[in-house]
Amino acid sequence: MNQHSPKYVSLSHSIKSDILSGVYKTGEYLPPEGDLMKLFSASRTTVRRAIAILKSENLVDVRQGRGTEVLSSGGMQTPFNLQSSYQLTNLAIANKYLVAGEPEITTQHASIDQMPAEIKVANALGIGIGTEVYRLQHVKLVKNVIYTYVTSYIPCSILPGLEQYNGKILHFYNFMKETYGVPILRVEDAVSAIRCGFLEGRLLNVSPGSPLLFIRRIAFGETQPIEYAEKLIRPDLYELVVTMNRPAQEEFSEDVITAAQGTGAPA
């Protein structure tokens, strides 16, 4: 989960993220062992231990003579287009923390390392596979309890020298604008639910198999994607609340509500 994790643990997390984001879909097969060894610069033993973790989480099944089949995939959904009759006014999106009293949110300083872009990261950012990107990892806490784990990827060419700020960044978007003059002007979030795996369970202190919110974000600057991020969130501590007002001369329909929910951009 971070730069201090064993190689097989970080490898299993990378492949799991690819499965959940739809790079590898249900019924498809992962690349052969040899290809995974080359792609991740890992030994055969490391690859097999990573696959064993995925199998224990019921994400894959190893089929003798055929390979490793994906059993459960998040699948990236095709973005929808709002029709003119579904335009909304006064759309508000808020974070709701399911704790008593003031939520008292704190953010851990982000750890930063550098890595070649995997398929999902390259596709989201519009860059070549293997392009060097920075990976930022941090957790957020509500009343001193971790409720979300966030991993962000940013092309090194956009924020050169970012590694010198390892352990020093709290609010990344403000930091980018103030330090590099790079503002975030738009974000696209895809919200889904997944089952918590063993590794996520240890980090978030929940039982494996418990539901988690899974948010995939692409953040844009003026002309290009700046960040691809993944967030794992405990739904017992956090909710995303969308408030809508009916446009003049229009009535709500299920399509309107569904479309509006798809525009959410939680902090």
Q: Tell me about the biggest sheet? A: 7 strands, antiparallel
Mean pLDDT: 83
Beta-strand content estimate: 25-35%
Low-confidence stretches: 75-86, 255-266
User: Based on CA inertia axes, which overall geometry fits?
Assistant: globular
Number of separate strands? 11
Helix content: 10-25%
Output the helix-strand order: HHHEEEEEHEEHEHEEEH
CATH-assigned homologous superfamily of the largest domain:
Chorismate lyase-like
| CATH fold call of the largest domain | Chorismate lyase
Radius of gyration: 19 Å
Helix count, DSSP H or I runs of 4 or more residues: 7
- Sheet/helix structural class: alpha+beta
Provide keyphrases for this structure.
267 residues, alpha+beta, Arc Repressor Mutant, subunit A, Chorismate lyase, 2 domains, seven-stranded antiparallel beta sheet, two-stranded antiparallel ribbon, 11 strands, 25% helix, globular, disordered C terminus
